[in-house]
Every structure is written in C-alpha cells, then in structure tokens.
Specification:
The protein is α+β, with helices and mostly antiparallel strands and about 100 residues long. Helix content is about 20%, strand content about 45%. A five-stranded mixed sheet has the order 3-9-8-5-6, with no helix packed on it. Strand 1 and strand 2 form a beta hairpin. The two termini are about 35 Å apart. Bound molecules: copper (II) ion.
Length: about 100
C-alpha cells in the first residue's frame, strides 16, 4: 500500500516534468501591419511570443477575451495559453491585422 502510494507520487512528478518539457515557445511577428504566421497551432501550456517589428503600437487582442497583449514598437511580449480552442485575435489599433491560434488540449 505504502509502496503503491509512493509510486503514484513519483509517477505524478514524472508526468508533470514531461508536460513542462513539452511546452513550447511559439514566435509570431508583427511587421508592416501583418501578423505572421496568420494561423498558428499550439497546445495548452505553450507560450506565444509576439514581436512587434514596426514603429507603431500593436496589440494581440483575443475576440473571446482570452488575452489582450500590448506590443509597443520594437518590443516582444508573451502569453501562456491556458485553454484549448480556436482563438481569433486582432490588433485593436489596426483592426485589419488579424490572426488565429488553434490551441490543442
Ligand atoms: Cu496594430
């Protein structure tokens, strides 16, 4: 009984380590008023890192309210994905800048 419990604790630690090792950082750029790539696949736990290469202020604003990241000119900002689903986002200052992240569980 004691042994089974210890095994379960070790297995849980091992699973947690594996999950964090799998988490990726995904780079997305904003340049010349365009988001690239416009469609990105990610997983829950991954970090999205946007880099604004323009001299204008941008944002990555999720239509469903999941995130609203401000991107000052020539800066990088990131967000860790917490929920699965398809998230459409845009720039609140330049609404023609649109992109999608498909977040797998
Ligand atoms: Cu913008």
């Amino acid at each position: 009984m004691q042994r089974a419990r210890r095994f379960a604790a070790i297995a849980a630690l091992w699973l947690a380590a594996g999950a964090s090792a799998r988490a990726a950082t995904i780079q997305i750029s904003m340049e010349n008023l365009e988001v690239a790539p416009a469609v990105t696949s990610a997983r829950v736990g991954d970090t999205i890192e946007w880099t604004n290469k323009d001299v204008l202020l941008h944002s990555a604003t999720a239509r469903n309210g999941d995130f609203d990241v401000t991107l000052p000119p020539k800066k990088t900002a990131s967000f860790v994905l917490k929920k699965a689903g398809t998230v459409d986002y845009y720039c609140r200052y330049h609404p023609n800048m649109k992109a999608t992240i498909n977040v797998a569980p």
